[in-house]
Amino acid sequence: MEWYLKVIKNYATFSGRARRKEFWMFVLFNIIISMILGIIDTVLGLQVGDEINHNGVLGSIYNLFVLIPTIAVSVRRLHDINKPGTLLIAYYAALILAGIIMFLSIGSIVVVLMGIVILGFSIYMIVLYAKKGDVGANQYGPDPKDPNSKMSNDDLLDDTL
């Protein structure tokens, strides 16, 4: 639970690095909390929508609450493996584009191709999130596993260029 609260406390901190444990514990607690809220929404009849496509009111409020921390910890996780946070923007852009194409139903082959692209990109992102972080400081900050690691002067010079 401390890892989950750490992410919530760093609500909109997009700089620095996040360990694998911090990221995956946050994901785990999000899943557990979402499931509990889904059950509560169902029991209390707080579902909105039809039988196939419905959302719970409490779950939706919770998802809005954790949207920014989820993006922030995802960016920091990418920073830990020395990848830019803009990679996450590309991923979300592909998801949105796929959603628009599927909504407009522009040819079944295009929908299938977009599905394959999204599946491939999703697998790539999961692999990146599971990858071991860089040992020592990198361009995004000191190693979160080693609080004694410092950024070298070369790293500081690279940021100014």
Tally the structural domains. Answer: 2
| Estimated share of beta-strand residues | under 5%
- Strand line-up of the largest beta sheet: 1-2
What is the H/E string?
HHEEHHHH
Largest sheet: 2 strands, antiparallel
β-strand number: 2
**Mean pLDDT across all amino acids:** 85
Tertiary shape: flat
State the helical fraction: 55-70%
Structural class: mainly alpha
What does this structure look like?
With about 160 residues, this protein is mainly alpha-helical. It folds into two domains: about 1-80, no CATH class; about 85-140, no CATH class. Helices cover about 65% and strands about 5% of the residues. It has helices at about 1-10, 20-45, 55-80, 85-105, 110-130, 155-160, and strands at about 45-50, 55. A two-stranded antiparallel sheet has the order 1-2. The longest helix has 25 residues, at about 20-45.
SSE blueprint:
Blueprint lengths: L1 H8 L10 H25 L2 E3 L4 E3 H24 L5 H19 L3 H23 L22 H8 L1
Antiparallel strand pairs: 1-2
Helix pairs in contact: 1-2, 2-3, 4-5
Primary descriptors:
single chain; 161 residues; 6 helices; two-stranded antiparallel sheet; mainly alpha; 2 domains
